[in-house]
Amino acid sequence: MRYVLFICAAAESAGAETAEADSGSVPAASDGWREEMRRRGVLLDGAALWPTSDATTVRVRAGSVQITDGPFAETPDQIGGISLIECADLDEAIEVAEAHPAAGSGLVEIRPVRER
């Protein structure tokens, strides 16, 4: 089964981590996690995201398009990246998520992919 891991950090640190990743100095712990999960065959893809200050939100209400700079909602945690994994079951997905370095300082949300 495929799952998406949403890699989250506190809003004030999410931007710093993304800028750090963009500059090529991705934390070694994340590099090690990616290498290990690729070796295990569970990591299918992933991407780091720009901070929510660079987001654009689009809503359509009563036929009118509303475009807002910034995130959809103000929350203490922001998604800084995603990983697409394939695991035998939720237990294995939890094992993969708890091994991610972000789980120790932020959070990792696991969501099953709805197959079409």
Describe the model.
The protein is an alpha+beta fold. Helices cover 29% and strands 37% of the residues. The chain contains three helices and six strands. A four-stranded antiparallel beta sheet has the order 2-5-1-6. A hairpin with a 2-residue loop joins strand 3 (56-61) and strand 4 (64-69). The radius of gyration is 16 Å and the shape is globular.
Sheet bearing the most strands, described?
4 strands, antiparallel
> Which regions have little confidence, pLDDT < 50, spanning 5+ residues?
17-26
**Rg over CA atoms:** 16 Å
Query: N-to-C SSE series?
Result: EHHEEEEHE
Looking at the structure, what is the overall shape? globular
Please give the number of β-strands.
6
Q: Could you give the order of strands across the largest sheet?
A: 2-5-1-6
Average pLDDT, rounded to a whole number, is: 84
Outline of the structure:
The chain is 29% helix and 37% strand.
What distinguishing features does this structure have?
116 residues; alpha+beta; four-stranded antiparallel sheet; 6 strands
